[in-house]
Amino acid sequence: MSQATFKVATPAASASIAGKILLAIALLIGLGFVVGFVFPYFTLNQQRFGVYWVKRAWLLLHIVPGTFALMLGPFVLSMGLARKRMKLHRKLGYGYMTSIALSSIGAFYLAFHTDVSWMFGAGLSGLAIAWLITTSLAFAAIKRRLVAQHKEWMIRSYVVTFGFVNFRILVGILTAAGVGTLVEQLTVSSWFCWAFPLLITEAILQSRKIFGSQAA
What percent of the chain has pLDDT over 70? Predict the structure, then answer.
């Protein structure tokens, strides 16, 4: 009578599965965001753009490449974390970085020419700066063959990329709850959409090192 062999999932394997699930969820939420909030702008309806109608070229410069980055991120990360299909990973990675660079140009223009408030513009500027820094450091790390650091900075980069989705979610929640004025809702969301998720991400990345080293 043969004995069944059972494989115990290692922490690394469990983390890989959790990562794939999170990326799949992010991709689905991102798709919903694109369909619900991005596609309507392509109709070039003046009412849809509102106060941004006169700045529509800059808004589209921000939205279009930003959407590419949002959609490419899960694929770039999943291939990189699994170390699979690396040639395609590198090509998509360059597309991801180029999209962020282009989208940031539009983001900075809109942040410095906002009709909401200077604090709202500062929040958006902070998001764009964090976007460029995290992505640039991910690129610098891999150019120096620092794979572990590259993975971490790419995770941070995509967390910031997802900030645009978080922004819409936060504004929707605050509006539904009737908390504050529209200007206050937009301003708070412009900061919390990226700063808080980035803080949580950093805490997770560093705690794995701290408590993982103790376990070893």
Answer: 91
